[in-house]
Amino acid sequence: MAFLDKNYLLTTESAKAIYGEIGSLPILDPHNHCDVKALAEDRGFQDLWEAEAATDHYVWELMRKCGVPEELVTGKTASNYEKWKALAGVFEMFAGNPTYEWVHLDLRTRLGIDLEINAENADAIWEASKAKLQTAAFSPQSLILAMNVEAMCSTDDPADTLEYHQMLSTGRLAGRVHPTFRPDNAMNIDKPTWNAYVDKLGKRWNRSLDTLDDFLDVLAQAHDAMGKLGTVASDHGVVTPFAYQLDKAVAAELFKRARNGEALSAAENAAFRGYFLNEMAELDAQKGWVFQLHYGAVRDVRRSLFDSLGADVGGDISDHSIDVVQPVLPLLNRFDNRLKVVLYNMNPAHNATLAMLTRAFGANVCLGPAWWLNDSYIGIKTQLELGASIDLFSNMTGMVSDSRKILSYGSRFDVYRRTLAGVLGDQADRGQMSLATAKKLAKRLTYDRPKAFFGF
Questions:
Q1: How many other β-carbons are positioned within 10 Å of the β-carbon of residue 188?
Q2: Cβ neighbours around 356 below 10 Å, total
Q3: Which residues face 207 on adjacent strands?
Q4: Which pLDDT score, from 0 to 100, does residue 82 have?
């Protein structure tokens, strides 16, 4: 088998046959981090660094691992060409990591560049890609259409003004781009920026947020506004999924104290976050939205990076020691049979427990796809096999790109589909299911299940 040839990740005839049924199906992406403003304005890419690496923390982290100076990763004075040359110069060292395959897939499948990325080919790839990326056929909106993205969900704050979603709702991507309600900034009462954020939220909705009722009313207003633009889900990022029930009067007192600048204890912070999650879940249940819970990510553990560059630049890890069951049970029981929930887990050590949990709560509670650093052939394969052996293939919710770069959507989904075809093909070859059933399951996980579950 040649590098990234047509049989990439497909090692059996059964896998090839299953992939043949799903490889060209439309993409349904329930969770990504696209730049909605850039997409609405359809701003073309100036060069390959902008399209492929300017927002990709995976690339940044690996460049640092290879000793590339920070100026050539996130610096302000180095040119994009210099950064690309630095990336190409170490790219062969990425082999074995999924980023190596993803970026090559982007070049081959989208840009038609069949060259391995290395120092010798850096200039040829740069020039060939630049000539294409600056054409209308490779603008962000054109790429979405070319990749057959039928639906995609961005990540949006309750304080966002949503004008770019308004633009997209009437353009050539009408009906394809859905906002997702992501109120983490409102939930994280322990953050030093929380009070300033609540002021910003109040200004956005022309309200003075002095009481918990004011706060919840504005969040409901933001929830409604996104709903009018096609939202199908909310999304919440936590370390430990605290979702304990809390009396409203207690939550109101915690809110008042925090607004007055008083520091709350760790237990009080957790109690408020639990109350908050339940309130947001109630809004989702009323609209029939999917409640997505991403947990286990410990952010910005490398202090020097955070101090020099701020948040979200790499240096995030998972925590194996969190309790993934007891804290979330109050919410799952309160909304049993009236809320659709997807649980995304950053640490694969918790997958078996979460599969048992989703099995116990029936069809409305699902184990999400392999998330973040598990989003690889190994991570996807492991999660599919383990999740199905405890819960059901048919109860999983498909794939998400979780990506900040449009150019990668097709590659991310293709890796998932090829891995899924291999997992199901192996089971068919072992006599665990018929090939016909495997093909049906592949189509369900690739298209039918996410379309029905999220309501696209």
A1: 18
A2: 14
A3: none
A4: 98
